[in-house]
Amino acid sequence: MSSPRFGNPKQVCEHLLFDAKRYNIEHSILRSEVAVADRLLARSLELADAYDELYKSSTHTRVRCRPSSGSS
Fold first, then answer.
1. How far apart are CA 21 and CA 29, in angstroms?
2. How far is CA 7 from CA 17, 26, 37, 56, 58, in A?
3. CB 21 within 8 A of CB 34
């Protein structure tokens, strides 16, 4: 499952968590991160504001870091 580029901040963040969790489980690594992802996913209603802030921050960073079209 790949993460959507745009959409609801909660959906984007939860897709990222699911993807990381799936990868870690498939490769039998980072069991503590899987546990943390499970806890975050279980508390999604409480974390809606945090997901929104993360989404806005990451979107702003991507826009700000784009190279200018006039570079040589």
1. 10
2. 15, 27, 20, 11, 13
3. yes
CB distance 17 to 40 below 8 Å: yes
Would you give the distance in Å from CA 18 to the centre of its chain?
9
| Contact by Cβ (8 Å): 12, 48 | no
Cα–Cα dist 48/1, whole Å: 21
Q: What is the pLDDT along the chain (72 residues), one digit of tens a residue?
A: 554 556 799 999 999 999 999 999 999 999 999 999 999 999 999 999 999 999 989 876 654 444 555 554
